[in-house]
Amino acid sequence: MLALAWATLAALTLSVQAGTKLWDGSFNTYASAADFDKWSWANQVGAYQWYIHGSQATSRYLAVSSDYKNPAMSTESRGIKMTIDGTSNWNGQTMERTELIPQTSTNIGTGNLFYHFSVKRTNTNAPDSSMEHQVCFFESHFTELKYGVGSNPKNLVWMVGGVEKWSTSFTADTWFNFAYDINFSSSTVGLWASTGSSPLTKVVQNIAASTSTNSADWHLGVLRLITNQTPEDWYFSGVYVENGPITTAIGSGSSGGGGNSTTTTTAAPTTTPTTSSTTTSANGPAQSQWGQCGGNGWAGPTACASPYTCIAVSPPYYYQCQ
Ligand SMILES: *[C@@H]1O[C@H](CO)[C@@H](O)[C@H](O)[C@H]1NC(C)=O
Ligand SMILES: *[C@@H]1O[C@H](CO)[C@@H](O)[C@H](O)[C@H]1NC(C)=O
């Protein structure tokens, strides 16, 4: 009787709290690193675009395992280890990058959406706090996490438009759960956070931001501005985007396969390296809004399409058309 009552209560609670998942970034359909290589501009399959990485084999940068997920995520079979090292320069840039981009035809840039992910480090190949890291960012950098910056470089720092709004000590072997609370209608963003299996709580109320995405410019992973080339491992799991109301429980939001539907991929827009926005374009007459237009090692366009101008976002490493 009591058990039944609890079960009913739990079901009610879940049905009240669950949002609609718009894009599922779980790694349940990725049995090995080789599955990421099935994606290409000509064959846009799976849950992720995989092209922002160094010159070596994918297995050097990505590994999936049940050991790499937040154990609280009972519906997920795997998490991912993302590695950056001295070979991780992408597209002639001096910064090092290992990043996955959502592959979806769904508009994940409208209304009030929640971008969920969990991140962890260990003491093996630990991130070096003497270098700036940009983590889980949008191309325009309207919101992101950073590591290795600010008054305490050992903190994970949540930023809005490059300004610190919240931070927490990035301790080893702890899963940090986040959801970016983005209202694209009112151009505001807030932050939900927790650790381990604890439900998310809102830690920063929504504040004004230049919210925008073309639904293919959220970067799951890490960009490092280098001063040395030591390898680093970053772990991620619990990745999905949902419509409100937010799912605060850890592990319940990513249920149900997803991510490997051919119907989704056949309906995908005809994105190519040259027509897609931003840092994806290596060369061209003029860079589009939010695209890179300069920085150490940058070999791509330095002129911006009208009416945008090239802004020093992270000089001398990164300049962007805004
Ligand atoms: C998707 O599923 C197919 C068929 O089961 C499989 O061959 C393929 O590797 C999967 N793709 C990804 C990206 O996991
Ligand atoms: C998002 O912003 C719109 C426009 O200001 C507002 O009507 C809506 O209530 C907001 N959504 C939430 C969940 O706050």
TrEMBL record:
CC terms in the record's Gene Ontology section = extracellular region
User: What does the entry give for GO biological process?
Assistant: carbohydrate metabolic process
Q: Does the keyword ATP-binding apply?
A: no
Q: Which UniProt keywords apply?
A: Signal
User: What is an example of a GO molecular function annotated in this UniProt entry?
Assistant: cellulose binding
PANTHER family recorded for this chain? GH131_N DOMAIN-CONTAINING PROTEIN, GLYCOSIDE HYDROLASE 131 CATALYTIC N-TERMINAL DOMAIN-CONTAINING PROTEIN
Q: What is this protein called?
A: CBM1 domain-containing protein
